[in-house]
Write a structure and sequence with these properties.
Radius of gyration: 35 Å
CATH superfamily of the largest domain: EAL domain
Shape: elongated
Largest sheet: 8 strands, mixed, barrel
Number of strands: 27
Structural class: alpha+beta
CATH architecture of the largest domain: Alpha-Beta Barrel
CATH class of the largest domain: Alpha Beta
Distance between the termini: 60 Å
Number of helices: 27
Strand content: 15-25%
């Protein structure tokens, strides 16, 4: 049998920059990067920063853990440096990992010096030597990005390990690349931290600048380091006052306090800026100590200078990375949030460029970037704001330290950009903004963002000023979404998503012969309705995960009887292109004949589906599954497409059935659908049949099936009564 070889999914990191991610995902990564850089600029401990790097990454990939492993220079083996969500036993299991082709995603990332994306650690050959770790800790997938030094050598890896088999999206690849790059910044900063500690611990080392004066404060000795720092020789300074190196930046009160401390405490230390012979400024940490003779009478002064100029430059660069937008040179969102922490009344105007995506599409991203730079310059220099910011791709902010005439200011901005055409690369561009404005001392960034959303919904060039009474609803909705999202992820993790079955009555035989599988979440003794989480599932991309659970559990339950049953399929499921294989697998596993299964597709999917979706629907039919169009009549129905697809059932939308006995319009629409279906020989199912009056009309219209609480309430098991 031939020897097995590893097959690495290698990603060229230059390609990562070219992949398409959404503006929201791009902003998530910017927020992630800015939060870490803020911690660096605030001089947080390196370990705390690395732990935060992992924790923030985990928030962007639910149901995962993040880890940073580095190679030990002395052993060439890898060990965990940061992984706050992984228990100590996990750290120990990964200790002294040998980089190599079978050493897992991280071992391969260092061995190949390339990104590794493993979607199934239980079978992938790259995990051969440490597969027991994946199995012991249920690490189903693992994506790892190499951390490289300045010579581009792999010195470690940053990884996201998932408790489910999954493939990384372009967003996740970009996230890993960003995290690995930030690790380099943190490691360099950690080296600077150690350097600073060395400065403090080595104050008496001869490599530092040393100056010794007599009791009259005249220089009597300096060392070579002092000469090198200031460009002054002994002959230049001996016998002179130390103010020969003064930068003249400090008031007399500064020196008065220094001498007071020397007199009372016999020492003084602090950061001070002096001046070299060539006029350049020298940033130093200075320690001055009074040295008394044996009788405590005559004394000298010993000054030790630690040059901090390079450290200052590094700190300044880090602060610029944390607070300055790299494209436009304006302050960024992190700086704005820092300024807003001070409790004082301010006015904040958010400005969103109208149709910026069109400009990018029409003229290219390079010209789009040039436009953003030009807009930034104009906003900064023409409207007298205390601070100007770039918040994200096409959104800017003006911050005023007081209440302003908002409408007057916005009129000024509008008139300026109306009168001044921006010319770039021989192209004239007119721009305009939508505005969100808030005034106050608390939550004004959030409030102005809510106001901007309202302005955008009102149309281009709109202005909305935040109103506490009417606009706080959006924040409430956001909180509700977060709560619902947490509920959904926890329910999936804890296997609390379950099917409930509602019977469908055959009006010809007066028997329940079919059931629809309806999704529910068990929360203690409470059963949570899909109205509380399905919209959230759609927004967070979790619908396919729910569909898989419903298929698996419904097939298992229905394998114990012979009823026909239906399962809802979404456009997200069709887009993932996994359904036919998954359905066939579960049908074989539970020995369920496909002819018993009805796949309910929303009307909008059937009438405007992509070619790939239509091919899948035809594949379902060929495999023996039936197709039902759900909520028929809720959209602009394409009757010709319904006939072309060879649909098996039409489910009339509940909005027409529920009041068909009292609403003439509902009656006429239902009658028309029923007439069409009968002529096309397609059985109809009326949803939301809740009383006898409605059922009588359904029977009068010769609709074949009825579904609703009149006959069957959803139950954990199919009950035909």
């Amino acid at each position: 049998m031939p020897a097995q070889t590893t097959t690495c999914n290698v990603l060229d990191e230059n390609d990562i920059d070219e992949v398409q991610i959404t503006p929201k995902e791009y902003n998530d990564i910017l927020d992630y990067q800015q939060e870490i850089l803020r911690m660096i600029a605030s001089h947080e401990k390196s370990q705390k920063i690395l732990n935060a790097l992992c924790t923030l990454a985990e928030k962007l990939l639910p149901n995962s853990v993040a880890s940073l492993m580095l190679v030990d220079d002395s052993t060439s083996l890898m060990s965990v440096v940061a992984a706050p969500s992984i228990p100590k036993v996990g750290h120990d299991a990964l200790a002294n990992l040998q980089p190599g082709p079978y050493g897992g995603s991280c071992g391969n990332a260092v061995f190949h010096n390339d990104a590794q994306f493993v979607t199934d650690t239980f079978t992938d050959l790259r995990w051969k030597d440490i597969r027991h770790i994946a199995q012991d800790f249920n690490l189903c997938a693992c994506w790892s990005m190499p951390v490289r030094d300045e010579a581009k050598n792999a010195i470690g890896s940053f990884a996201l390990s998932s408790f489910e088999h999954r493939t990384p999206a372009p967003f996740h690849k970009k996230l890993l690349q960003t995290a690995a790059a930030i690790v380099n910044v943190v490691l360099k900063n950690r080296a600077n931290e150690k350097r600073l500690e060395l400065f403090y611990n080595a104050m008496e080392n001869a490599s530092q600048g040393i100056i010794l004066t007599n009791s009259k404060n005249k220089i009597i000795e300096v060392n070579k380091a002092f000469e090198d720092i200031y460009g002054l020789s002994e002959s230049d300074v001996l016998g002179k006052d130390p103010n020969v190196i003064s930068s003249k930046k400090y008031a007399k009160s500064f020196y008065k306090k220094m001498w007071s401390d020397l007199k009372e405490k016999s020492s003084w230390n602090g950061e001070i800026t002096n001046m070299a012979k060539d006029g350049s400024l020298v940033h130093q940490w200075t320690n001055i100590t009074a040295l008394y003779d044996e009788d405590s009478n005559d004394h000298n002064y010993l000054g030790i200078f630690t040059d901090m100029s390079e450290l200052k430059k590094t700190q300044q660069k880090l602060e610029e990375m944390a607070y300055i937008d790299q494209l436009c040179g304006l302050y960024n969102k992190t700086k704005l949030e820092k300024l807003l922490k001070v409790d004082s009344h301010k006015t904040l105007i958010l400005l969103n460029i109208n149709n910026f995506s069109y400009i990018n599409t029409a003229y290219g991203f390079e010209l789009g970037d040039k436009l953003l730079v030009k807009v930034a310059q104009l906003l900064k220099t023409n409207f007298e704001a205390e601070y100007t910011f770039r918040i994200n791709s096409d959104e800017f902010a003006l911050l005023f330290d007081s209440k302003i005439e908002i409408n007057e200011t916005i009129d000024t901005i509008n008139n300026f950009f109306y009168d001044n055409v921006i010319e770039l690369d021989n192209i004239n561009i007119h721009i305009s903004f939508s505005y969100g404005v808030a005034y106050g001392d608390k939550n004004i960034l959030r409030n102005s963002a809510l106001a901007l959303k309202q302005a955008k919904e009102s149309g281009k060039n709109s202005v909305h000023i935040f109103n506490k009474d009417s606009d706080s609803i959006d924040h409430s909705s956001r909180e509700k979404f977060i709560s619902s999202n947490n509920l959904l992820h926890l329910a999936i993790k804890e296997d609390r998503v379950v099917p409930y079955f509602q019977g469908i009555k055959n009006n010809k035989t007066d028997e329940i012969t079919k059931f629809e599988a309806l999704v529910r979440i068990k929360e203690g003794s409470k059963i949570v309705s899909p109205f509380e989480f399905l919209e959230t599932a759609k927004l967070s991309g979790m619908l396919p995960e729910i569909t898989k659970i419903m298929i698996d559990k419904s097939f298992k339950i229905m394998s114990k009887n012979s009823y026909t049953f239906s399962i809802n399929i979404t456009q997200d499921d069709l887009s993932k292109n996994y359904l036919i294989a998954y359905l066939d697998t579960k049908a074989k596993e539970y020995k369920v004949d496909p002819s018993r299964v009805i796949l309910e597709i929303l009307e909008g999917v059937s009438t405007s589906a992509k070619t790939n979706h239509l091919e899948q629907l035809n594949s379902f039919k060929k495999s023996g599954y039936s197709i039902a169009i759900d909520d028929f009549g809720s959209e602009y129905s394409n009757f010709e497409r319904i006939l072309d697809l060879d649909i098996d059932f039409l489910k009339i939308d509940a909005q027409y059935i529920k009041d068909i006995d009292t609403n003439k319009k509902s009656y006429e629409i239902t009658r028309a659908i029923a007439f069409f279906a009968q002529n096309a020989n397609i059985p109809c199912i009326a949803e939301f049949v809740h009383n006898e009056a409605v059922q009588n009309i359904i029977e009068e219209l010769d609709i074949t099936f009825s579904q609703g609480y009149l006959f069957s309430e959803p139950s954990p098991y199919p009950i035909a009564k």
